[in-house]
Amino acid sequence: MNVDSHLVRLVHDILFREWDPLGVNADEAAFSEYSRYDVLLLQLLKRGADERRVAEHLLRIQENSLGISPLDPESDKLIASRLLTAYEIAQRRIRPARSAEELVERYQAGERVFNGSRIETDESGILAGCALNGLVLRNAYVKLSFQQASLRGADFWDSELKGSDFSYADLRGARFVGSVLSDTSFQGARLEGAEFNNACYQLRMLKTGEFPDS
């Protein structure tokens, strides 16, 4: 995944999960609702647009493309700030997280991509119940408890997640393509729209449309 594809993913996650002027993000099937605006916003960010210009663009999308009156212009400014932060972070070299605590701290500062992380312990249980929507942990090796965490749209592509606990987590739209899921718990998890094709779960390969047992 190159820098531009990371950026498109980050921009789209922010539009769908945080901006969402149509109020559709409870339904993971609507994930592509705002995808037509991703590239134009990315071009704005690349041209050095400031918070005001990005917020104005969001307002025009609502008025001209969606046909609605903006409910909260201040919210558009916050989303513009989030988009600028995501762009700045994505331009840096992606660094793996070295601990669960570091991952949470950097996530809360606006980072989303932690590819290649290797985290085998979380004695504090800090990730349980956390909001980690849009987290990207590709090619990672982690053994962590994500109990009751919100991980909507998270991406664990080709990661080894042996012994991790996703029980009662919100995994709607999450991706586990090609991941190793031995002794991984999904009890009570929300899995609508999640992808598990080619994941190895309890010594068997899951096919497209298959889900792990709880």
Secondary structure layout plus pairing:
Blueprint (H helix, E strand, L loop, with lengths): L2 H17 L18 H9 L4 H15 L7 H19 L8 H9 L9 E2 L21 E2 L57 E2 L2 E2 L9
Parallel strand pairs: 1-2
Antiparallel strand pairs: 3-4
- The parts where pLDDT drops under 50 for at least 5 residues are none
Number of discrete domains: 2
- CA-CA gap between termini: 31 Å
Order of helices and strands: HHHHHEEEE
- Under CATH, the homologous superfamily of the largest domain reads E3 ubiquitin-protein ligase SopA
The level 1 CATH classification of the largest domain is Mainly Beta
If strands are numbered along the chain, what order do they take across the biggest sheet?
A: 1-2
CATH names the topology of the largest domain as Pectate Lyase C-like
**What structural category do the secondary elements indicate?**
mainly alpha
The main pleated sheet reads as: 2 strands, parallel
User: Can you tell me the CATH architecture of the largest domain?
Assistant: 3 Solenoid
Q: pLDDT average, as an integer?
A: 89
Organism: Gimesia chilikensis
Protein name: Pentapeptide repeats (8 copies)
InterPro entries: 5peptide_repeat
Keywords: Repeat
